[in-house]
Write a structure and sequence with these properties.
Elements: H1 2-10, H2 16-36, H3 42-61, H4 63-70, H5 78-104, H6 114-135
Helix pairs in contact: 1-4, 1-5, 2-3, 2-5, 3-5, 3-6, 5-6
């Protein structure tokens, strides 16, 4: 229920250039990291946790998301709300890492393995769990900076 609404607000056609530039920036960042620092594989985990945290924080405290979600949020659907926000972040991060994997396959063919992705998923889930606890302390939504 909340997943599709979050999807509609996140992928707003008015903000498509900003979204594409952020996705392109993360793909370039991860690709350059893998090209320059091959032996430092732990950095991809740190960058993945930062990406996960920033997307989750954005969809939880941005004014557009808060006003859209507060209309339908009640005590009986809080679990659905949290679960759908976590699934949205997980899908978004995995889509970006799929793009990174496709781009990196040209430079380093055997860098990403199944165990690497499983480790990355564990770190992402830990990050989402810690973000849920930190979101309890945020009371007011943050306003978005508009270029208009």
């Amino acid at each position: 229920m909340f997943f599709l609404e979050t999807w509609k607000v996140f992928y707003n056609p008015k903000h498509k250039y900003e979204l594409l530039s952020v996705i392109f920036g993360f793909v370039v960042l991860f690709t350059c990291k893998n090209d320059m620092f091959v032996k430092w594989s732990f950095m991809i985990f740190i960058l993945g946790m930062i990406l996960t945290s920033s997307i989750f924080r954005f969809i939880m405290v941005d004014e557009n998301f808060v006003t859209n979600d507060m209309k339908r949020l009640k005590k009986d659907n809080v679990a659905d709300f949290v679960f759908s926000k976590n699934i949205f972040v997980l899908v978004g991060v995995l889509m970006i890492f799929l793009l990174v994997t496709m781009v990196n396959s040209f430079f380093i063919p055997s860098f990403f393995t199944i165990s690497f992705f499983l480790k990355l998923m564990i770190y992402i889930l830990f990050t989402l769990g810690s973000e849920i606890f930190s979101i309890w302390f945020i009371i007011n939504p943050l306003r978005r900076m508009h270029r208009d």
